[in-house]
Design brief:
Number of domains: 1
Number of helices: 8
Radius of gyration: 16 Å
Helix content: 40-55%
CATH topology: Ubiquitin C-terminal Hydrolase UCH-l3
CATH architecture: 3-Layer(aba) Sandwich
Largest sheet: 6 strands, antiparallel
Order of helices and strands: HEHEHHHHHEEEHE
Distance between the termini: 16 Å
CATH superfamily: Peptidase C12, ubiquitin carboxyl-terminal hydrolase
Strand content: 15-25%
CATH class: Alpha Beta
Number of strands: 6
Strand order of the largest sheet: 1-6-2-3-4-5
Shape: globular
């Protein structure tokens, strides 16, 4: 699994979320440290992103960035050795902007991302236009944040807790889906404790 190649402990894994209804969410192994949403970059998304940026303001490797956001914002997720640990250690004192620049220039990450792309998972070079995008939803100190590499800053979605995080994050996923009701290409993943 890609996160284990990055140095994340095998006691954590990324799994599919089958549905966003409460009953389906109960099937996800706990604890859940992040939800990752994959969705099409449609006109509806671009319009919302632009409007949101204005309202709040007064390498396409977004899957890797979503994983970094998911892991780096959850200290309980063990990272020992590997490219992710090296990157986090090197950039611990940098601003988010400088961390983003460092990621773009990090040859270890570039090599790892290219290796994954060669396995057929995310070979963007074969496509003229990348039409999907990843974001991470995390609980940071009791606040639900949306972390999107294409936005200038984290987006706060209100209070959350360890107990309510999955339902709260699922609600945000549903909001994304409701903005583009004719689109069916949404996928949700969860960073969870590995199943035994």
């Amino acid at each position: 699994m890609y996160i284990h190649k990055l140095g994340v402990s095998p006691s954590w894994s990324v799994t599919d979320v089958i549905g966003l209804e409460d009953k389906m969410l109960e099937w996800i192994t706990r604890p859940v440290k992040a939800l990752i949403l994959l969705f099409p970059c449609s006109d509806a998304y671009e319009k919302h992103r632009s409007e949101e940026h204005e309202r709040i303001k007064d390498v396409n490797a977004c899957g890797t960035v979503a994983l970094i956001h998911s892991v780096a914002n959850n200290k309980e997720v063990d990272v020992s050795g590997g490219v992710l640990k090296n990157f986090l250690d090197k950039t611990v004192s940098l601003s988010p902007e400088d961390r983003g620049k460092a990621l773009e220039e990090d040859k270890e990450f570039t090599a790892g991302h290219q290796e994954l792309a060669q396995e057929g998972q995310t070979n963007a070079s074969e496509h003229k236009k990348v039409i999907h995008h990843f974001i991470a939803l995390v609980n940071k100190n009791g606040t639900l944040y949306e972390l999107d590499g294409r936005k200038s800053f984290p987006i706060k979605h209100g209070e959350t807790s360890e107990e309510t995080f999955v339902k709260d994050a699922a609600k945000v996923c549903k909001e994304f889906m409701s903005r583009d009701p004719n689109e069916v290409r949404f996928t949700v993943l969860a960073l969870t404790a590995a199943q035994n």
